[in-house]
Amino acid sequence: MSPTPKNEVPETSDEVTLKYKEIVKANGINDEVSQVLINSSGLQGEGFASQANYVTINFKNPKVKPLNLFVKSLTANSTHSDMLKESKLFEKESRFFMEYVPAAKEFCKSKGCEGLVDMYPKCYYGDNDMVVFENLVVGKGYVLLKKVEQQDLDAVR
């Protein structure tokens, strides 16, 4: 993600900032948040009924690295949003990442296969309106592969 020019820093409402402060605190991060920046991910048409944004959380302590998040949320299209809410798609996705993946990691560790499911991002939060993940592109150097090209397991790794 390219940095936002200083004169174009998007403003984030107090309500949204408070929501992300609560998410950070619920995940055991007790550093004081100074700023929450939300930018479009540029992933147009990737989700048929969701939109994706990059969220950067800056902390007051300059020694604390910013937290980079990838957030999927409902679109303005009420038909698609209602369908997602009715099917509880975001809730199911967050449950997979917040319950199944950690359990799978523990199971693999107990069998001596640590790191087997490390390809999944950490899920910080999920409800019926949004899912908040760590941003693997910014945080761990992952890259997005072209969907139109077929990928095998080695390429994905």
UniProtKB/TrEMBL annotation:
It comes from the Eukaryota. This is Uncharacterized protein.
